[in-house]
């Protein structure tokens, strides 16, 4: 039996345990969004759910990607339990792909939040504040307060969204590192077993030479013989 030192994450936890927990979480999260997406698609195909063309494409992409993610997480769980390097490698590649998609989608959403829809929401908030404060005494001061509340509230909200996104990205990236670390550990274990098998001494063939058989004749019993 070949012993290979287990790689760790978070200072003390084995990477195999990390992949095990990640895959279970992936099955739960991916399965939840996949089931929800296919339910919405079923309602859309029946005509009970009206969506724009872009929303339909996004819904199909969500359902398909989350289904693949859940199935790949299941393979990762099997690979972590059975120490199967190919399945763990497939799982590591899949969560890396999903992480890249999440980062790209998050950057686009944050950009829209600061330059596109975010500014539109602030303008709508201030316009609604102007309509609500018209005809009130000291309406200019009330409008200024509501404008400040709108801009400050959206600024704080956008900052919170950015922090949450960054933390989520860091967790996802660290999860990819853990998965690839376990793939590396499995590769080390395979190489160690290969070297151990080839470094074992070859069995020596021992030739047994048969000894020649000697025939012994019984000596005559001369006791009591008379001459």
From TrEMBL:
Keywords: Membrane, Transmembrane, Transmembrane helix. The chain crosses the membrane at residues 24-45, 57-81, 88-111, 159-180. The lineage of its organism: Eukaryota, Fungi, Dikarya, Basidiomycota, Agaricomycotina. It comes from the Eukaryota. This is Uncharacterized protein.
């Amino acid at each position: 039996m070949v012993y290979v030192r287990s790689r760790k994450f978070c200072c003390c936890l084995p990477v195999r345990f990390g992949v095990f927990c990640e895959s279970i979480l992936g099955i739960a999260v991916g399965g939840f969004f996949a089931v929800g997406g296919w339910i919405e698609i079923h309602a859309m195909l029946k005509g009970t759910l009206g969506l724009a063309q872009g929303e339909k494409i996004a819904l199909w992409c969500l359902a398909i990607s989350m289904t693949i993610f859940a199935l790949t997480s299941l393979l990762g769980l099997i690979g972590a339990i059975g120490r199967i390097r190919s399945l763990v490698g497939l799982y590591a590649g899949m969560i890396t792909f999903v992480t890249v998609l999440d980062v790209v989608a998050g950057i686009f959403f944050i950009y829209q939040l600061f330059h596109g829809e975010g500014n539109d929401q602030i303008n709508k908030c201030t316009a609604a504040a102007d309509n609500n404060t018209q005809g009130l005494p000291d309406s200019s001061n009330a409008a200024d307060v509501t404008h400040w509340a709108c801009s400050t509230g959206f600024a704080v909200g956008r900052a919170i969204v950015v922090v949450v996104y960054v933390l989520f990205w860091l967790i996802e990236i660290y999860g990819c590192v853990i998965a690839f670390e376990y793939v590396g550990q499995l590769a080390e274990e395979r190489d160690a077993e290969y070297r151990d098998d080839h470094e074992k001494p070859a069995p020596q063939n021992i030739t047994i030479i048969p000894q020649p058989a000697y025939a012994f004749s019984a000596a005559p019993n001369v006791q009591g013989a008379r001459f």
